[in-house]
Automatic annotation (TrEMBL):
Protein role: An aminoacyl-tRNA editing enzyme that deacylates mischarged D-aminoacyl-tRNAs. Also deacylates mischarged glycyl-tRNA(Ala), protecting cells against glycine mischarging by AlaRS. Acts via tRNA-based rather than protein-based catalysis; rejects L-amino acids rather than detecting D-amino acids in the active site. By recycling D-aminoacyl-tRNA to D-amino acids and free tRNA molecules, this enzyme counteracts the toxicity associated with the formation of D-aminoacyl-tRNA entities in vivo and helps enforce protein L-homochirality.
Signal sequence extent: none
Protein name per its UniProtKB record: D-aminoacyl-tRNA deacylase
Subunit details: Homodimer.
A Gene Ontology biological process term: D-amino acid catabolic process
GO molecular function: D-tyrosyl-tRNA(Tyr) deacylase activity; Gly-tRNA(Ala) deacylase activity; Ser(Gly)-tRNA(Ala) hydrolase activity; tRNA binding
Gene Ontology annotations for the cellular component aspect, listed alphabetically: cytoplasm
Keywords: Cytoplasm, Hydrolase, RNA-binding, tRNA-binding
Xref: InterPro entries: Daa-tRNA_deacyls_DTD, DTD-like_sf
Protein EC: 3.1.1.96, 3.1.1.-
Catalytically driven reaction(s): a D-aminoacyl-tRNA + H2O = a tRNA + a D-alpha-amino acid + H(+); glycyl-tRNA(Ala) + H2O = tRNA(Ala) + glycine + H(+)
UniProt subcellular location: Cytoplasm
Record-stated family: Belongs to the DTD family.
Length: 150
């Protein structure tokens, strides 16, 4: 399971000109699922994201977590995080899980995240053509991979 987390001042997700989620001050989480992902990947990724100290403290040092600043979050499914660009110019998405596997894992991730975080988060619409808008704060953008634990 891969995630790109971005510290944002604001973010929103729109599908068919309708806003699905909107937030201020927190994390936009782009989530990619592969076939081998399981509960342990969800658990590790949720804990890592919620507790990662990437928000500024009173001295301007990244020393606070999403949980400690009581920030918000939006989770968006993004199969392209598993793109392979080894050959040619057209990425292959062979490692990305098929929708029948990925969607339940995406929903399970959101449920686990909300339980661990202690509040509801926004979400995109799985499989839809989404328009994601954000104002990256910092900028702070981090790639996490549950298989590499980095």
């Amino acid at each position: 399971m891969r995630a790109v987390i971005q510290r944002v001042s604001e973010a929103s997700v729109t599908v068919d000109h309708k806003v699905c989620a909107v937030m201020q001050d927190g994390l936009l989480i782009l989530l990619g699922v592969e076939d081998e992902d399981g509960d342990e990947d969800i658990d590790w990724l949720c804990r890592k994201i919620i507790n990662m100290r990437i928000f500024n403290d009173e001295d301007g040092v990244m020393n606070e977590s999403l949980k400690s600043v009581d920030g918000d979050a939006i989770v968006v499914s993004q199969f392209t995080l598993h793109a392979s660009t080894k050959k040619g110019n057209r990425p292959s998405y062979i490692k990305a899980a098929k929708p029948e596997v990925a969607e339940p894992m995406y929903e399970k991730f959101i449920q686990k995240f909300e339980k661990e975080f202690g509040k509801n988060v926004g979400a995109g619409s799985f499989g839809a053509d989404m328009k994601v808008s954000l104002l990256n704060d910092g900028p702070v953008t981090i790639l996490l991979d549950s298989k590499d634990k980095r």
